[in-house]
Amino acid sequence: MAAVERVMSRRLFGGLAAGVAGGVVLGGCSSGAPSASTPLRVAAVNHVWTRAVRERLGEFEERVRRRVSMSLLTGDQLSSSYNVKLNASATDIDVMMVRPLQEQLLFAHNNWLADLSDRVQEPAFGWADFQAPPREASTTGGRVLSVPVVTERPVLYYRKDLVPTPPKTLAELKSAAERLTDRNSGRFGYVGRGQRSGAVTQWSSFLYSYGGDFTTDGRSAIATPEAIAAYEYYGELLGRSGPPGATNMSLEQAMPIFAQGKAAFYIDADAIYTGLVDPKVSAVGKTIGYAPFPTGPAGSKPYNIPSWSLGINRFSKLQDDAWEFIRWAAGVQLVTALQTAGIPGARASVWANPAAAAGFPPELAAAMQVNARNGVGHDRPEVLQVGRARDIVGRPLVSAVLQEQVAPVARDADAEFNDFLVRDNRHRES
Amino acid sequence: MANRHLKWLMLSPALLFVGAMIIFPLLFTLNLSATDAFGAVNAGADHIGLRNFADAFGDHRRFWPAVWRTIGFTVSAVLLETIFGLALAMLMRRAFRGIRWVRTILIIPLLATPVAIGILWLLILDPTTGIANHLLGALGVPPQEFLGSVRASLPTLVLIDVWQWTPMMTLLLLAGLSTLSEEPEEAASMDGANAWQRFRYVVLPMLGPTLTTALVLRAVDGLKTFDIIYATKGAGGGSSFEAETLNVYAYGLTFDYQEYGLAAAVLVLFTLFIIGVVLVLRRRSARSAA
Amino acid sequence: MKTLRGVAITVVALFFSLPIVWMFAAAFKTNVQVTDPSVGLIFEPTLDNFRAVLADERILPSMVNSLIVGVTSTVLSAIIAVPAAWAVGRFRMHRAGSLVLVARIVPAISLLVPWYYLFAQAGLVGSYTVLILSHMFVSVPLILWIMIGFFEGLPIELEEAARVDGLSAFGAFRRIALPLAAPGTATASVLAFVASWNNFMFALILSDEHTMTVPVALFSFISYAGTDWGGLMAASTVMTIPVVAVAVLAQKHLVAGLTAGATKG
C-alpha cells in the first residue's frame, strides 16, 4: 500500500499530466483543412481482406504520397461508429467499408455516401468486369454508391471421415445429420447459426431453395407455404441434430463447435474457410470436405452476395484520394492477388482465371463456382431498416429451432412484417 | 462571509464541468424524444409531441417486457448480492489466516474489465465447448444450456452479476461492520440472545445506513447494466429478446434500428425511472434513520 | 463451527477466483485447447498467444493510450473533485453535491451522439481531449462520492484549531485537510483510473486508430472469420495484470476508500 502512495506521488502525476497536456494540444490541432500530412482514413471491418490489404498499403501510400490509417472494428462496432460519426457530419472518415445489403440503403437515404457513378465509368477501372449481382447491390436509386470487394456464398462443410459422399439434397442432409447425431458422446449431425438476427442470412439459401423469398411485390412472403416449409426444415435440422443452446449461436459460437470435431455438417459462408483449416484453431482441418449448397424442392439456390464494399464518406475532404484507394483496392491486380490468397472478390475476369482459384482447396473452388452460378443476389430483406426486418423474419426461425409450432408464429410475424414494410416504404419515399 | 464564497468556489469547477458535459445531451435528447427522427438525427424530422412516449407505453412486445426484465434482473441481482454479501461480511468479520488473500481475490472481479469478463463467461458457459458443463457433468449434474436457453439466460446473467458485484457488497458491509461499537451486541449476548438474534435485532439495524448507500449504488448500476448483457447475448438481448433490458433496448433502437426519436423517448423514461428509484431508496433510508 | 467457517470461506474464494484462473490458463492454450473442456488446468503451455499480443500492432500502443487517458483524466478529476468534496462535506452542501452525482445516473447511450456532435464542431474528435473529458465525466462523480465520506470522517477540530491559529478557511483545507486525506485521494484516484482503464463504450465511439484504448483493441482478436480465443484471453490477461497488481498492493487502502463513501455518505 505504501507502494501505491509512492506511485501516486505528486511529482510523478505532475510530470505525466504536463506531458500529456502537451499531447492534447497537439492532438486537438489536427482538424481543419486537409494538408499533405493528413492521413487518408479508412474505416474497415476486422476481416482477412482488411488484414491482407493492410500488409500491402506501402505501395499505395507511395503512389498517393499520403499515409493511410486503417481502423479495424467488428461489424456491429463499425456500424455503430458510422451512426454516431456521420450523424455529426464527421470528416474523420474518408473510405467506408460497408455491407451493401445491410447499410447501404439507409446510408443512401441519409445521404452519407458520395456518388461514384461517374468515377466507376473510367475505362481503366472496368466496372463492367464486376459480377452483375454485386453491381446491382452497389447501385441505389440509379447511383453507384459503393464498389464490392468481398463476396460470399454458403458452402456445405462436412467431415470426410464421417461422411464418405456429401449429401446432394436437403432431404439427404437432414437424414444424414440425424443419423450421425449421438448426444451421449457429444457429437452432433449439424451445426449452424440459430441466433434470431444472425441466422437469417444463412437461412435465406434454404428459403430460396424451397421456392420462397422474403418479399414478393413489396409484401411479406414469410407465411407462404414455401417459407413455412423452409422454417420447419431448418428448425428440424438444427433443433434435432444441432447442439444445445442453438438459438444463442452466431458465427462465433457455431464455428468452434465444428472446428472441435463435434459436428458432422456445417453450412456457413465460404469466406470463413481459412479459420476452419488453420491447425491452430481447428482440430479437423485435414478432414474437411466442401460441397455446393444441397438441392431443395425448388433446386439449389444459395445466396451469392457482396458482403463488403467500399464507399466514400460524403463529408470527406479527401474524396479524390479516397477514390484512388478504391481504384487500387478493387483493381484487377490487387483483386487477383487477394483471390489467389483465398479471399473471393467480385470481378468476373478474376473468377474466370484458373490461377486465381489455386489459392482455394480444389473441392472448395469447385463448390464456389457451382454456388456462384446458382446464386441469388441477396441474403436478407432489401429494406431500409434491415436490423428490424431481420428481427421480425428471424422470430419464426427461432420458434422452429426451439421445436415450437411454426405456422402461427409465422403468420403473426407476417402481419408484423407487412406493417413494417409499409412504414419502411414510407420512410424510403420521404 | 468568506466561507460562503469559498465553498461555492471550490464546488463550482466540478459542478460546471458536469453541467457543461450534460446540459447539451440532455436538451438534445429531450428535443429528439418529441420528434419522429429516423435514419439520421438531423434528417428533417417533424415534432410529434408526446407520440413516442405513447408508442412506448403502448408497446407490449418490446418496451414493457424490457421494463419488467430490468426490474427483475436488478431486484434479484441486488437481493442476492445483499444476502451473500452480508453472509460473507459476517464470515470475514473476525480476522483469520489468509484473510489478506481472500480480500485480494474479492477485489479482482470488481476491478476486471467488463468486456473481457463477458467474453470469458461466454467461453466458460458454452453448453457444448465450455468448462462449466464439463465440471457439472463430473458432479453428475445434467448439462445446462445457460445463456443458450430462453429461460435460463436472465438467471445466468444474474449469476454473473452476483459473481462480479457481491465482493463490492461484502467490502462495503465489512467497513460498515468495523465502525460499529460492540457494546450493544455484548449486552444482547448477556441477555441470552443467540447468534441469529444478535444479528437480526442488533447488527442489522445498526448497519442500516451502510446498507442503503450500498443498495442505491448497486441499484443504479444494476439498472444500467449493459456491457455484460451485450457481450454475451448481443443486440436485442438474444433470440427471443430474453435478456433485453431497457438499456439494451435503447441501444438497439439507436444503433440497430436508427429510430432516434423513439430511442430518445425510451432513454428519457429510463433516466426518470432511475432517478425515481434513487429517490425512493433515499427517502426510505431517511425515514428508517429517523 | 470453525471448520465450517473455513470450508465456507474456501468455497467462496474458489467461486470468485476460478473464472479468472480459467482466463489465465486459457491464455497459455492453443485455440483448439481453449474450446476443448477436457483440457483442464494441466496441459503443455504455449507462449504463442502472448507473442501474438506483442506482435499485434494495436495492443501495446493502446495500452500506452489507456495509460495517458487514464492518468490525465484521473489527475484532472481529482483536481476538481477533491476540493468540491471538501466543500460538500464541511459545509453540508449535499443538495448541490448530488447534482454532480446525477452524472452517474444518466445512461451513456444518451450522451454519445450529442457529445460526438459537439466535439466534432470543436474540432476535437480523434484527439485525447475527447477521451479524457468523457472519462472525467465518470471519474469526477466517483472521486467526489468517495472523498465526501473521507472528509466527513476527518475530525473537524483540527481544522478549527488551525483557523484559531490564523489560517484562512482555504488554508485549513490546503494545509490540514488535504494532507490528511491523501490516502483517500490515492484510493479514489486508483479506482477512477481503473474505471477509465475499463471503459468501453465511450472509447469505442470517441477514439480513433491512434487514440484507441485497450478494451476496444481487444476486439482485434474477434474477426469476421472467427475468434482467436487464445489471443483474446492473453490480451485480457495482459490488461488485467495491472489491475490485479493494484489489487494485491493496495487492497487494504482500496477497501478503506470504497467504504469511506458508504459508511459516511
From TrEMBL, chain A:
PROSITE patterns linked to this entry: PROKAR_LIPOPROTEIN (PS51257), TAT (PS51318)
Xref: Gene3D superfamilies: Periplasmic binding protein-like II (3.40.190.10)
Pfam families documented for this protein: SBP_bac_1 (PF01547)
Name this polypeptide is given: Sugar ABC transporter substrate-binding protein
TrEMBL record, chain B:
Entries under Pfam families matching the protein: BPD_transp_1 (PF00528)
Annotated localization: Cell membrane; Membrane
Predominant cellular place of this UniProt entry's protein: membrane
Gene Ontology CC entries for this record: plasma membrane
Domain ABC transmembrane type-1 residues, every copy: 67-281
Keywords recorded for this protein, A-Z: Membrane, Sugar transport, Transmembrane, Transmembrane helix, Transport
Membrane-crossing segments per the record: 7-28, 71-92, 104-124, 162-180, 201-220, 260-281
BP terms from Gene Ontology: transmembrane transport
Topology term for the membrane: Multi-pass membrane protein
InterPro entries: MetI-like, MetI-like_sf, Sugar_ABC_transporter
Family recorded in the similarity comment: Belongs to the binding-protein-dependent transport system permease family.
Protein name: Multiple sugar transport system permease protein
UniProtKB/TrEMBL annotation, chain C:
GO biological process, one term: transmembrane transport
The keyword Repressor appears for this protein: no
InterPro entries: BP-dep_ABC_trans_perm, MetI-like, MetI-like_sf
Keywords: Cell membrane, Membrane, Sugar transport, Transmembrane, Transmembrane helix, Transport
Location(s) in or outside the cell: Cell membrane
Keyword Zinc belongs to the record: no
Xref: CDD domains: TM_PBP2
Domain named ABC transmembrane type-1: residues: 63-250
Main location: membrane
SUPFAM superfamilies (UniProt xref): MetI-like
Transmembrane regions: 7-28, 67-87, 99-118, 130-155, 176-197, 229-250
Pfam families per UniProt: BPD_transp_1
Domain of life according to the entry: Bacteria
Any GO CC annotation of this UniProt entry: plasma membrane
Topological relation to the membrane, as annotated: Multi-pass membrane protein
Family annotation (PANTHER family): INNER MEMBRANE ABC TRANSPORTER PERMEASE PROTEIN YCJP (PTHR32243:SF18), MALTOSE TRANSPORT SYSTEM PERMEASE-RELATED (PTHR32243)
Entry's family note: Belongs to the binding-protein-dependent transport system permease family.
Record protein name field: Multiple sugar transport system permease protein
